[in-house]
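We close this part of the discussion by returning to an individual protein. The sequence in question and its structure tokens are set out directly beneath this paragraph:
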Amino acid sequence: MQAHELLSHLAHLSLAHGRARAASTVAAVAGIVVILALSRAARPPILRAAAVAVPVTAAVGGAVWAAYRPLPNQLPPTGYAWIWLAVGTLVLVASLLFRRPGARRAGVIGVAGVVVAAAAAGQVNAEVGVYPTVGSLVGHRPPTVVEPVSFGDVPGFESAVQSGTPMDSVWTRPVRTPGSGVVTEVQIPGTESGFPARPAVLYLPPAYLTSPRAVLPVMVMIAGQPGRPQDWFSSGRLGSTVDAYAARHDGLAPVVVVVDALGSQDANPLCLDSALGNAATYVAHDVPAWIEKSLQVSHDPAQWAIGGFSYGGTCSIQLAVNYPRIYPTFLDFLGQDEPSLGDHAGTVAATFAGDEHAFAAVNPVDVMRTRQFPELTGVFVAGAADDEYRPQQQRMFAAARAAGLNVRYYELPGGHEGATWGAALEREMDWTGRRLGLTS
């Protein structure tokens, strides 16, 4: 294997699944065993070190839990366990080194502590999917479809188009059709809402890049919180998933617009129009207006869908219920049963100054208690190991069925993580294509 091939292979090694997680578990156990073995000869010192480590670990772990748990994309219990293990190990190591056990022994104990901390970081990363591959640690872009292009380089409106429903019944693939789609970024302004969105990320399938061009449906997608639109292309594998769908259908696939419904990495406007910002108007009015003006796509609402994971999943059912004529199809992956900042009272206070009626007027569960929505179709997906969000998805599914929505619910292996929502998107592409009129 040549050097560049070896580097490419290493760059694409997964940090989130299978062998990587097993290796980090083994490394953590080995590091702890080494630390305990080297400290065995000095039981009073290690007991005193443990007496320091336990309360410090509890305090740090509690602070992490309090800061991170209220967020919709919170860590599962195993993530907190790994953080506590890392903090406890490092405090224990520091206490042992403070007692000067000798240069060689100190070096080995220090390295073992770093190994345990790195292994724990790897496990937490696997839970949240921030760095899906080795290459992503150093900024290597994962192979979603192709290298991104400037939006200015995307072909403009074509005079020759092919359209029909289902699209695959009338589509004749042009000879000059790219083998894959392209990814591009663009700023979608908050013209009506004033919402300070970050740039959106677009996936344009091969059939959009041809002449004649296929008039394609649209999927508006939203990431989790904290997060950014690019998360759908890293931990969610959106680019490779939709590109694979296009490869199976002669280049046909939805145009996917992943928008920012947060405003910043850690903001949480809850996809509402409230004191926290006009995120709902942005996604329901500004985004569709820009898409219809700037992209040559179908304007038929029956060919538009909204979807997302975690925060984005909650947004999808919110917007479908509150704007059914704009988004009659939704994909709610791992969402909540209501928009939340951590507790109901605090959420209502922060958004509508404590006005429960104002909150209920836009909260999907409350809205569905008062209206029927037979025109809405969607899917709820939960992780079988997601004890926090799975019950909420079940409650939302029950409320949707009671309101007459045409909905499905199922669970996939995994927790509140990229592997789960990425698998959900892959599984739902065929259904989405049929629903949006691409295939029969």
Notes: The CA atoms of residues 6 and 12 lie 10 Å apart.
